[in-house]
Amino acid sequence: MHTLWQLEIAALKGIITTLYMETRMSNDLNKNDVQKLILSLLKPDPRKAKSAAELVKLIDVSRLHKFSKKDQKQEDDVLEKQAQRRVLRILDDMIDKLIYGVEELPTKPRTFYLKNQTDYSSLLQILYGLNSNIVMHLPAEERSEIELLDSRQMPNSVALWQQKIYVGRSGFCHRAEADPEIIRVIYKAVESEQFVEFDYQTSTGKRSTLEAFPWGILLKGDSCYLVANPHDSGKPWPVTYALHRVKNPKFTNRLTENAPGRPQDKNHFQQFCKERQLDLFANEDDAEIQLQLRFINGKGRSLHETVLAADQQIVPINSKEFRLKATVKNCFELHRFILGYGADVEVESPLRLRELIAEKLKAAATIY
């Protein structure tokens, strides 16, 4: 169905003229014609909603007075009121049927606007654009339709959904705040594919100034990271930089064409993040291992749904224990995950990981 509300005012007038030409032989407008006129004149923005009286003026009362059962020589104001009642009845009927998406604006009695039918789909489109994994949270019909959405159909209703969706913290800590101006420069550098120079302080306090080519943005929970390749790294892969630790970013004049350290093609960044498991902060030296854990005290039940790997296997031992096997990266994130379970998990294999976790737990016990 063509979305008439997207047309410009001039085009709307053209529609009215066309409808008039189509109906002038009968010198009358039927209900379907009036519905089309109303839909074309309604706006998707509630702030620009129109009342029945406004619609009557836009449609032209002289074309609606044919609905009057009384003498057509009545005063114009009487005919206008009758036309308004006719429009209200049509709007009420459209609302009852819920087929055109016309809604009554609650803050202004008897004022109507055209509800955009793709509000929810457009929000999903935005989320899908950020992360294709959002598909797993969609109903079957949306899964097949979301890739067909046209960005030109995106409504100005994101603010509405911002009032309906709450994004909580991914952990106990509040997220680190990045300066809006820093965000603007970094995002512009990513978008325009320009080298950017900035000051950076690592989590251990080491400070440096570097120039890098930005590959993209990594979102991990509440945190945001710049993925960029330092100009003088001599390596083909990038590094992650927490955006809240970036200071004084600025563009440089270094040419980007054929510059070393750039992604191989437009899909390389996504492929790199997925294959390297960059969201786990894994590096090139982190090997895949055959992990075997024993969970006790009834812990770890959520791992039935939030799996560690595609080949994960869970074998019950008794009512409060189970054994988990999975092929995973032996990386920082895995160590932190295991340590987070404390005394409720035992690393059974590989042996080197078991020894590493034992050393960390012994060191922690020594402190206490």
UniProtKB/TrEMBL annotation:
Boundaries of every WYL domain copy: 181-249
Record-linked InterPro entries: CBASS_pafABC_assoc_protein, WCX_dom, WYL_dom
Domain WCX, first and last residues per copy: 289-365
Top-level taxon of the source organism: Bacteria
Transmembrane parts of this sequence: none
Protein's UniProt name: Helix-turn-helix transcriptional regulator
UniProt source species: Rheinheimera tilapiae
